[in-house]
């Protein structure tokens, strides 16, 4: 039998084009996590999305935790720029943060903002703005709800409490953006996560993420990408990928982090 042809409408700034695809995705072909999509304004990943994530990051492990991508936006070339993640993927890793910014252009740009001390600068702004504090608390709550709604029956007792202890499990379930404590408005912690939150939920729901986006615009970065940046994301490209180097501070296993986990487990 002839494979089913899917007619996809691809909308770009310049024109409407029609693309034919003969690849019908089956559950067996799909990569990533099979956990339900619970993060606001997200849709389930496709195999193509996961292959893009692997090329963008140069890592396979995050792709096994991928759940969703924003329903409202992609770059100008049609590639996802951020993914929602499984908090308890099959790899055994526990993800306190629910979002991963993956667009290489944006990741490097936000790296530069953090290197310039913008986290500290934003922390000072937040302390003087009650409305911004309220929006941050709302964002933390949104992430916590999405995490809890995605948990399967029995996982809290069988996995979380076993690995983190009762206190650590409770803190994990209540954690907000980038795994921040639920009531934390003193440290914005990770600008990558806040930009990802903005890409999913928009400027009204994520004003801090909008501030990150504004900083990028002021530096001349276009959130939708450049005319030729697709080569960093397109799995079919014959050009060598150039993924940014991982900078996730939670993976450094510092003595301070180990001490915190020990306290939570006791």
Q: How many E-type strands?
A: 6
Stretches where pLDDT is under 50 for at least 5 consecutive residues are: 1-29, 249-258
Instruction: Report the portion of residues in β strands.
Output: 5-15%
Radius of gyration: 19 Å
Count of alpha and pi helical runs: 8
Could you describe the largest sheet, including whether it forms a barrel? 4 strands, antiparallel
Side-by-side strand order of the widest sheet: 3-4-5-6
First CA to last CA: what distance?
60 Å
- Average pLDDT, rounded to a whole number, is 84
Q: What string gives the helices and strands in order?
A: EEEHEEEHHHHHHH
Shape: globular
Secondary-structure class: alpha+beta
- The share of residues in helices is 40-55%
Characterization of the model:
- By secondary structure, the chain is an alpha+beta fold.
- Helices cover 42% and strands 10% of the residues.
- It has 8 helices and 6 strands, in the order E-E-E-H-E-E-E-H-H-H-H-H-H-H.
- The strands form 2 sheets. Strands 3-4-5-6 form a 4-stranded antiparallel β-sheet, sandwiched between helices. The chain has a two-stranded antiparallel sheet with strand order 1-2.
- The longest helix has 21 residues.
- The N and C termini lie far apart (60 Å).
């Amino acid at each position: 039998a002839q494979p089913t042809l899917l007619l996809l409408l691809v909308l770009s700034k310049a024109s409407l084009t029609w693309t034919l695809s003969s690849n019908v995705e089956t559950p067996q072909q799909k990569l990533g996590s099979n956990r339900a999509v619970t993060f606001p304004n997200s849709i389930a990943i496709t195999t193509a999305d996961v292959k893009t994530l692997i090329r963008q990051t140069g890592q396979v492990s995050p792709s096994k935790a991928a759940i969703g991508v924003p329903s409202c936006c992609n770059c100008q070339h049609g590639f996802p720029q951020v993914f929602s993640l499984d908090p308890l993927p099959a790899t055994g890793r526990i993800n306190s943060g629910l979002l991963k910014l993956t667009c290489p252009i944006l990741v490097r740009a936000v790296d530069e903002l953090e290197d310039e001390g913008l986290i500290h600068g934003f922390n000072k702004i937040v302390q003087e703005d009650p409305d911004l504090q309220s929006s941050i608390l709302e964002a933390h709550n949104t992430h916590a709800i999405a995490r809890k709604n995605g948990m399967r029956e029995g996982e809290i007792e069988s996995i979380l409490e076993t690995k983190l202890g009762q206190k650590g499990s409770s803190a994990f379930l209540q954690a907000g953006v980038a795994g921040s404590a639920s009531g934390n408005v003193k440290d914005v912690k990770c600008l990558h996560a806040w930009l990802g939150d903005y890409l999913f939920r928009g400027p009204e729901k994520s004003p801090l993420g909008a501030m990150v986006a504004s900083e990028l615009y002021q530096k001349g970065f276009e959130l939708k990408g450049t005319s030729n940046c697709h080569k960093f994301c397109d799995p079919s490209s014959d050009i060598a990928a150039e993924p940014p180097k991982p900078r996730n501070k939670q993976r450094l296993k510092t003595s301070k982090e180990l001490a915190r986990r020990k306290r939570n487990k006791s």
